[in-house]
């Protein structure tokens, strides 16, 4: 059975070109870039080449890019650096729908005495700007807001927020792990102070990421040791993966607009078909400001894990915000923050696409999904009642 | 990804006895859509013999909730009401070849639906949930339920209570109170053998042995500057290593014998303890 992979916000396959780019550094070129000899030292050039490619994708200068081990490290490092650089400020602002890499790091700092404000979102998952502006004061150290949400794909208006914070002299970090390579980002037009990105979300391998730090922004290293990355991130460079990240960014940049059109076409096809074929179905999130590859659909009165395991029988990979899939007993904090009703929150399914998905795969999902939902609703004490009332109201 | 047994998968993909019974003799409703799982059990009972001649269910929930419901109906069909009430949540889990520990609450839900249906059959009012004090506000779990599940399943830690009842799995505010309840239960009476003296799963046995060694045995040895370490459990053979002052102690054999007696008393008569 072929795998139909619609879980690209979780992770992506390594692009073949990217794999080719990294293999020499796992085989013959195993040197240490810090070495004095040519064998190792020459790798330095490869790292700088990758740095340029990453910078180019987001409109940054190469020296503003620090390579890290993952998106989580980038997020942690950004917030920690702000805290270390401005020890007198003790207030952090973030949102209720952030990735755990930011959310739990903020909770960690709260236990250390920081004041943290979690800004609520609207029912469409959009940041509540009034609440954000109200939360800021002279003690505010940093605002950390995601560029695009991993569960719903909702894009925050970071450019607008930047303008406002600049006046107040507050740092802005954006977790753009889900956005980089999926939508155009131009740092030169949107002057955030720090931005996180991750390799494995854009067809590079797991275990590599980057943090953009605007020139002139005070920075304190999070991982301390050797002089790598100009002393901003110690640890021998992961050359193969850094080369891979460079290549992946280059690929993403080359075809960005064409891919966005392609993905939006596929995504809209799934969404429209399922809305039509499955009654009591809701799209979660601001459909006007959303990543083109993501859809988050709630199938009311059905439980998400059950849907996923049924899809799994057809080789289809997706994810859910239901409690049973979260690893805790609470359903998605993102959908809860949006006020999605309990009847819908447990039955939420996210399909996230990549350039490697095909229309035939989309058609397969459209073919199997309605029957799965119908059957599980027949299992459910709520689904049966609901379908009855629906058919009554239709007659 | 959950590690489900083939039996769980089978009862999830092809559940038995799904649907409604028209004019049932009893209905048991437990759970809610807010909490993420709910089960409605229908029974057809033969008035004269008290035998359950048909059982059907409808479940909103994950794969293990659907499989547990299916297992429950298979287990109770053909039994009379009193026999059916002997079925524990452990029986449901065992029928399925075991459940991931985080999913044990699905088997507990099955057992509760059975109790609710029997109460309904006997014309007893729906009480259970409202009666006790709600301890876990996130999942509406009463103190009474926590006590009951803890005793029936021989639970000694808050994490296990969460796995079995969900209590403490939300905001976590009640975990201190759950801990106090567990202390209260197990300080009054020593953790006794599971009420019904029947097969506990290997995993449960291992957990129980670890727990007893940690709580009942090591503190005493450590007080005398000794210690032991659990090395392995092979069936009923428990292998330990003596540490600290216990190493080479002339009384080591007596110590091992003492540990064995304790485990015989609390886990199983068949336990043998050996030093490595």
Describe this structure in words.
The complex is a heterodimer of chains A (395) and B (276). Chain A is α/β, with parallel strands linked by helices and 395 residues long. Chain A has 2 domains: 16-254, Aspartate Aminotransferase, domain 2; 256-381, Aspartate Aminotransferase, domain 1, CATH 3.90.1150.10. Chain A is 42% helix and 14% strand. Chain A has helices spanning 16-26, 38-41, 43-58, 71-85, 100-111, 129-135, 158-168, 239-254, 256-277, 304-312, 333-337, 342-345, 359-379, 381-394; strands spanning 4-5, 65-68, 91-95, 115-119, 140-146, 171-175, 194-198, 209-213, 281-283, 294-299, 316-317, 319-320, 348-352. Chain A is globular. By secondary structure, chain B is of the alpha+beta class. Chain B has 3 domains: 6-126, Sufe protein. Chain: A (Alpha-Beta Complex); 129-188, Arc Repressor Mutant, subunit A (Orthogonal Bundle), CATH 1.10.10; 202-275, GMP Synthetase, Chain A, domain 3, CATH 3.30.300.130. Chain B is built from 11 helices and 8 strands. Chain B has helices spanning 6-13, 63-76, 81-85, 89-95, 104-121, 128-131, 143-152, 158-165, 175-188, 202-223, 252-266; strands at residues 26-32, 37-45, 52-60, 134-136, 141-142, 226-234, 237-244, 272-275. Chain B has a 3-stranded antiparallel beta sheet with strand order 1-2-3. Chain B starts with 5 loop residues before the first helix and ends with a strand. Classes of the chains: A alpha/beta (395), B alpha+beta (276). Chain A binds chain B through residues 301-306, 309-310, 313, 322-325, 328-331, 342-343, 346, 378-384, and chain B through 2, 9, 12-13, 15, 18-20, 29, 33-34, 36-40, 58-63, 65-66, 138-139, 162, 166, 169-170.
């Amino acid at each position: 059975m072929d795998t139909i992979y619609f879980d690209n916000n979780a992770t992506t396959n390594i692009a073949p070109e990217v794999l080719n780019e990294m293999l020499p550094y796992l085989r013959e070129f195993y040197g240490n870039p810090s070495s004095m000899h040519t064998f190792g030292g020459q790798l330095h050039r490869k790292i700088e080449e990758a740095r340029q490619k990453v910078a180019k994708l987001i409109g940054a200068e190469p020296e503003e890019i620090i390579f890290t081990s993952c998106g989580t490290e980038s997020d942690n490092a950004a917030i920690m650096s702000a805290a270390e650089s401005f020890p007198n400020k003790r207030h952090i602002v973030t949102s209720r729908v952030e990735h755990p890499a930011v959310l739990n790091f903020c909770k960690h700092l709260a236990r250390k005495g920081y004041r943290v404000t979690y800004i609520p979102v609207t029912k469409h998952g959009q940041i509540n700007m009034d609440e954000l502006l109200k939360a800021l004061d002279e003690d505010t150290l940093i605002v950390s807001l995601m560029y695009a949400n991993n569960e719903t794909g909702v894009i925050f208006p970071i450019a607008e927020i930047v303008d406002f914070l600049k006046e107040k002299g507050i740092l802005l970090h954006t977790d753009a792990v889900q956005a980089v390579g999926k939508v155009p980002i131009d740092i030169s037009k949107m002057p955030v102070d720090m931005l996180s990105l991750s390799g494995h979300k854009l067809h590079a391998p797991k275990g590599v990421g980057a943090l953009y730090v605007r020139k002139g922004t005070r920075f304190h290293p999070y991982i301390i040791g050797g002089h790598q990355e100009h002393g901003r991130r110690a640890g021998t460079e992961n050359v193969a993966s850094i080369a891979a990240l460079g290549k992946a960014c280059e690929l993403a940049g080359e075809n960005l607009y064409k891919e966005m059109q392609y993905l939006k076409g596929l995504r809209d096809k799934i969404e429209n078909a399922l809305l039509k074929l499955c009654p009591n179905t809701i799209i979660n999130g601001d459909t006007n400001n959303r990543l083109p590859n993501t859809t988050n659909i709630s199938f009311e009165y059905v439980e998400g894990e059950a849907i996923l395991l049924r899809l799994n029988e057809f080789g289809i990979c997706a994810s859910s915000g239901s409690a049973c899939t979260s690893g805790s007993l609470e359903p998605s904090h993102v959908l809860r923050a949006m006020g999605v009703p309990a009847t819908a929150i447990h039955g939420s399914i996210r399909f996230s696409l990549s350039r490697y998905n095909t229309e035939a795969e989309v058609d397969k999902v459209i073919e199997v999904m309605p029957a799965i939902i119908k059957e599980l609703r027949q299992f459910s004490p709520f689904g049966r009642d609901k379908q009855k009332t629906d058919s009554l109201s239709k007659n | 990804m959950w590690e489900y047994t083939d039996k769980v998968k089978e009862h999830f993909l092809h559940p038995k006895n799904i649907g409604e019974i028209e004019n049932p003799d009893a209905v048991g409703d437990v759970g809610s859509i807010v909490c993420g799982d709910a089960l409605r059990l229908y029974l057809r009972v033969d008035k004269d013999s008290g035998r359950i001649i048909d059982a059907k269910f409808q479940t909103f929930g994950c794969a293990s909730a659907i499989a547990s419901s299916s297992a429950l109906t298979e287990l109770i069909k053909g039994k009379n009401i009193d026999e059916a009430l002997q079925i524990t949540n452990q029986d449901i889990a065992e029928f399925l070849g075991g459940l991931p520990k985080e999913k044990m609450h699905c088997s507990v839900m099955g057992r509760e639906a059975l109790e609710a249906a029997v109460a309904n059959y006997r014309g007893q009012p729906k009480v259970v949930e409202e009666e006790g004090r709600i301890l876990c506000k996130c999942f509406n779990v009463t103190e009474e339920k926590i006590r009951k599940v803890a005793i029936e399943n021989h639970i000694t830690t808050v994490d296990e209570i969460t796995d079995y009842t969900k209590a403490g799995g939300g905001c976590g505010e009640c975990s201190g109170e759950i801990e106090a309840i567990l202390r209260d239960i197990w300080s009054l009476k020593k953790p006794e053998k599971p009420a019904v003296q029947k097969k506990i799963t290997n995993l449960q046995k291992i957990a129980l042995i670890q727990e007893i060694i940690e709580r009942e045995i090591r503190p005493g040895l450590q007080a005398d500057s000794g210690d032991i370490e659990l090395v392995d459990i092979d069936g009923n053979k428990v292998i330990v290593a003596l540490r600290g002052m216990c190493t080479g102690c002339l009384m080591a054999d007596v110590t091992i014998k003492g540990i064995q007696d304790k485990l015989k008393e609390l886990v199983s008569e068949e336990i043998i303890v050996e030093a490595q």
